[in-house]
Specification:
By secondary structure, the chain is α+β, with helices and mostly antiparallel strands. The protein has helices spanning 72-83, 107-121, 126-129, 132-143, 147-154, 197-202, 210-228, 234-237, 244-247, 252-263, 289-297; strands spanning 16-26, 30-49, 52-59, 90-97, 157-164, 171-178, 185-190, 268-270, 277-281, 304-307, 316-319. Helix 1 (72-83) runs parallel beside helix 2 (107-121) and helix 2 (107-121) packs across helix 5.
Amino acid sequence: MGTSRATGAHWAASPVVVRAPATSANLGPGFDAVGLALALHDVVEARVTGGGLAMEVSGEGTETAGAGERHLVVRAMRAAFSLLGGQPPGIALRCVNAVPHGRGLGSSAAAIVTGVLAARGLVSDGVTMLTDDGVFRLAVELEGHPDNVAACLAGGLTIAWTAQRGAGGAAVPRLAKLTVLDGICPVVCVPQEVLSTETARRVLPETVPHGDAAANAGRSALLIAGLTSVPEVLFDATEDFLHQRYRAAVMPATADLLRRLRAGGLAAVVSGAGPAVLVLTGPGPKTSPDLVDSIARETGIPWRISPLGVDRYGATLQTAVPGVRP
């Protein structure tokens, strides 16, 4: 997209800061529908300048700093600015990333959400011109699927789906937010290796047996119950029949850790498209993060084990504080 000065937008005088959480999609059986926001965040400070594009990236993904207009945050901002009256004369960005890239923890959703919200925040009447529903629709369009985007925007536990509006009407992404029980602590196991979502999707079959689909539907319903009211069912609730077994060949270390964790009675799943693993732990020694770490060490692979809280609020935007770096 071009970078010419917009004629229909009025720019905010101050920079904005957007904070967006990591997310884990699927959670086992909730394939392409269920997402969970995690207390690990990317932070972007953005401001309008007199011209050009300046970008600084630290933390995860520092190698993307030279991507310029191809950077996902910038592409998301450009798409949003196009809906908000046009492009600003220039943009300066400072990105501080904590969400690992290419591990199945929603880094692309976080980048898209920060870009769209930052652009809206830099237009003085942006909230009126691009509503929250509009932000969600644009972010889903850019991401290609709604599960991570829904959790990143709304926080907590989300269910995302696409609703058809009448015969021949456009498909509209929707989301419902649920409250996760206190005491449930997600633990992520992050390997050094990366895996693209495209590779992970390529190995999935076009069809699955009817019995597997029926079993998965039951587990998906049980998953929601486990996360919101009856956590003792989470081990059974996280059993998947649609995607994890088919992806094992392209992420053997993940499949091995997953097998070991579930053999130990832990509610472990592939996080999103992988290769990270997510464990839903609760109170008691049987499900403690220490047990996750102990089992992961048995693999001989240097997994990075991180107990994380649930982000219950989703992405936030605020005016930058002068002199305070994000």
